[in-house]
Amino acid sequence: MTSADHDHGEHDHSELSETELRVRALESILTEKGYVDPAALDLLIETYETRVGPRNGARVVARAWTDPAYRARLLKDATPAIAELGYAGRQGEHIVAVANTAALHNMVVCTLCSCYPWPVLGLPPVWYKSAPYRSKAVKDPRGVLRDFGFELPAATEIRVWDSTAEIRYLVLPLRPGGTEGWSEQRVAGLVTRDSMIGTGLPKAPHEVA
């Protein structure tokens, strides 16, 4: 190993969070003991980071923001529209897209367990599966939104959708102003996971490079 290689390695290592370091250590132990096939593990990580995850949903939203015909197909029957972009599979057999407007804000919960559209949002966050969220989202959705750091105008209706094993929901958030003329790829960078659940908003244009 050259000095430059060594320095580069130290730099990469220093940027890892404590959790990431623990995960890497656990991966190493399990691999050494023969419990985990490194190739299979890499494929699994790659799948959920690049193929199954919020970036998939962001692409769906961005396409709907920039292509009116696609938006219409998505809102009419989301499952085949999402499949057009190559996203389908387990936990995504029947997805319904609900669009936010200036007068209506949609929020998704699963009151019984943690039903979630994996093909477009990846694995559900811990808070989505928690009892406090599952109960409060129905009883006090405005309070939940305040907990997540934002508040909607009093006149805005909040509609809560309860995901089930048969139907899962994807929120189509409002496109941020000031993004006229932006490419699909560029607006996709504004879409957050929480905005597709309804517990957050897309990033503002000034928040991205």
Q: Overview of this structure, please?
A:
The chain folds into 2 domains: 15-49, no CATH class; 54-208, Nitrile hydratase alpha /Thiocyanate hydrolase gamma (Nitrile Hydratase, Chain A). The protein has helices spanning 3-14, 18-32, 38-51, 54-66, 68-76, 78-83, 118-121, 126-129, 131-139, 141-147, 184-188, 193-197; strands at 95-99, 104-109, 157-162, 168-172. The strands form 2 sheets. The protein has a two-stranded parallel sheet. A two-stranded parallel sheet has the order 2-3. The protein is globular, with a radius of gyration of 19 Å. It has 209 residues and is mostly helical.
Question: What is the gist of this entry?
Answer:
The protein is mainly alpha-helical. It has helices spanning 3-14, 18-32, 38-51, 54-66, 68-76, 78-83, 118-121, 126-129, 131-139, 141-147, 184-188, 193-197; strands at 95-99, 104-109, 157-162, 168-172.
